[in-house]
Each structure stands twice: as structure tokens, then as C-alpha cells.
Design a protein that fits this description.
The chain has 282 residues and is an alpha/beta fold. The protein has a single domain, classed as Rossmann fold. Helices cover 33% and strands 24% of the residues. It has a 7-stranded mixed β-sheet, sandwiched between helices. A 3-stranded mixed β-sheet has the order 4-6-5. A two-stranded antiparallel sheet has the order 10-11.
Length: 282
């Protein structure tokens, strides 16, 4: 049976500059924010010092790894959102003209985070090249968040199918495919029933759960939604000859990134118990 999730808890894995953490805190959630980049984690520590002091936010300044200890982390020199522990991602970024500095950081197993802080109501994952490491780790626990989102692959159709297969094995049956960077700002209902207004940054993952627009889709419908996305990427995506040619032109790379875009897969379980487990403060 799935572990009872803490309805007031969110995991922000890949917190970056706190674009999403800020939103979750405004909604009244407790947040566990995971960020491996030391410079970014220092920024989070300063930005959210009040939330950290009063126990609403716990900052884990480590990378997600298969084992605990240390690992290499590639700090991207052009775009901080491209920081990664995956050498293949670092090589891809380098081919796009975005070199990285390799440093050593502490890392933590994802199941250990769940064991220490509890099972979240919503699990947001955006850690370049390691998203599925977190999702697959749920198979070793009884934790089943009501909602999960991750940045899906758009380079390997077989890997995309494996993402959905893993979700299905964990009991997730409803999905939404959401374009990043185009989230509508507006009013949202906090956990205490009050209305808040929030404007999303470009790098934010945006709203989640029932605040997402559009209907929930079945697995097959969601996979079909990715067909035109993959076709577009295969035509003018990062690794195509057309993209490499056009990127020589000023600002053409930014235009291509905007056209192709990145997409998050949001998954929902219907059978997660709607109960709140009492846990100690973070």
C-alpha cells in the first residue's frame, strides 16, 4: 500500500534560484528544496532565510546520486539551468557552445530524502539528466506522491516510453504534457483558502495538480501528444544540421529554443489516501 503523503509537503528537486519554491511557500506548503550548485544554494539560503529560520523550508545542498558520498557536478558557464551530474549532458551543452566547470559536490540517495523528510504531496523534479533517477527510486519505497512532474526527454523515443512505463508501474494513470516557460500568471488558492497572486519566471515549472489547464490524459493520449514535439525537435532541434547552421546567426539560437521548447510530464495517482500524517517540523 502506498505511504500516506504529507498534504502540506512539496519536494522541489532542482530548485535553481527558487522560482518554484517561492510559489510553493506562498501557497502555504512546507518545502524540501534540493540544489547541488553551491552558488545557487547560497542564493537560496539568502533569499529564503526567513522561511528556513521558521522551518517552512529545508535546503538540501546536494546532488541526487545512486549512492551517498560525492560526485562530479558540471556548472554551466552560460546558463545556470544546465548544471548537471551527467557527463553526456555536459558534452551536449559544450557542443551548443555552453562550456561547464567540473566541480565535486556531496550527493544523497533519493530514498534517503524520503526516509528523512517524509513522502511529499507533490514531487517536482528538474535535474538535468537525473530526473528518472528520482522517479525510479520510488520503486524502492512505499512513497507515492499524489502528483509528480519531471522534464521529459525529447531526444529518445524509447526513453520517453520508458518514462511512462515507470509511471505506470508506480500506479500513475493520468498525465498532462505542459510546455515550459509559458505558464500563465494569476490568482491561486493557498492551503488556508486565501487567494494569492503569483507571476511565474521563465525558468519556473509553474503550477501543478488541479491548477494546470486542460484535461488529464491517459497514457496513450499523453504519448501521442509527444509525437509532434519529437518531430519538431528532429527537424530543428539542438542536434540537427539546420540548427547548427542557424545558430551561427545572431539570436537565432534563442529563437530556435523558443520554437522547440522543453516539456514537463505531470503525473497523478487517483488512489493516494487523502489523509495527513503528523510529522515533526523540518
Amino acid at each position: 500500500m502506498a505511504e500516506i503523503a504529507n498534504l502540506d509537503l512539496i519536494f522541489d528537486v532542482g530548485a535553481h534560484k527558487g522560482e518554484d519554491t517561492d510559489f510553493y511557500l506562498k501557497l502555504g506548503y512546507r518545502v524540501v528544496a534540493v540544489e547541488a550548485n553551491p552558488e545557487l544554494s547560497d542564493g537560496l539560503r539568502h533569499r529564503f532565510r526567513e522561511a528556513i529560520a521558521d522551518g517552512r523550508l529545508l535546503l538540501v545542498d546536494k546532488a541526487i546520486g545512486e549512492t551517498a558520498g560525492t560526485t562530479s557536478f558540471f556548472v554551466n558557464e552560460k546558463d545556470s539551468v544546465w548544471g548537471t551530474t551527467d557527463p553526456k549532458w555536459a558534452a551536449r551543452n559544450r557542443a551548443l557552445g555552453a562550456d561547464s566547470e567540473q566541480i565535486t559536490v556531496d550527493c544523497v540517495r533519493f530514498p534517503d530524502l524520503i526516509s528523512e523528510y517524509g513522502c511529499p504531496h507533490y514531487l517536482k523534479i528538474d535535474v538535468e539528466g537525473a530526473d528518472m533517477l528520482c522517479v525510479e527510486a520510488l520503486n524502492t519505497t512505499s512513497c507515492r506522491p499524489k502528483f509528480i512532474s519531471l522534464e521529459s526527454t525529447k531526444t529518445s523515443w524509447s526513453d520517453l516510453l520508458q518514462e511512462f512505463k515507470t509511471f505506470e508501474s508506480l500506479g500513475y494513470t493520468k498525465f498532462k504534457v505542459v510546455r515550459e516557460g509559458r505558464h500563465k500568471s494569476g490568482h491561486f488558492t493557498a492551503r488556508d483558502g486565501k487567494k494569492i497572486r503569483h507571476a511565474f519566471d521563465m525558468d519556473a515549472s509553474g503550477p501543478f495538480g488541479e491548477d494546470l489547464g486542460g484535461p488529464w490524459l491517459g497514457r496513450r493520449q499523453a504519448i501521442l501528444r509527444y509525437v509532434p514535439i519529437f518531430l519538431l525537435y528532429k527537424t530543428i532541434g539542438d542536434t540537427t544540421w539546420l540548427s547548427r547552421y542557424l545558430r551561427r546567426i545572431s539570436r537565432a539560437g534563442d529563437a530556435l529554443n523558443f520554437i522547440v521548447g522543453w516539456y514537463d510530464t505531470h503525473a497523478m495517482r487517483d488512489d493516494v489516501p487523502a489523509m495527513r500524517r503528523i510529522v515533526p517540523p523540518l
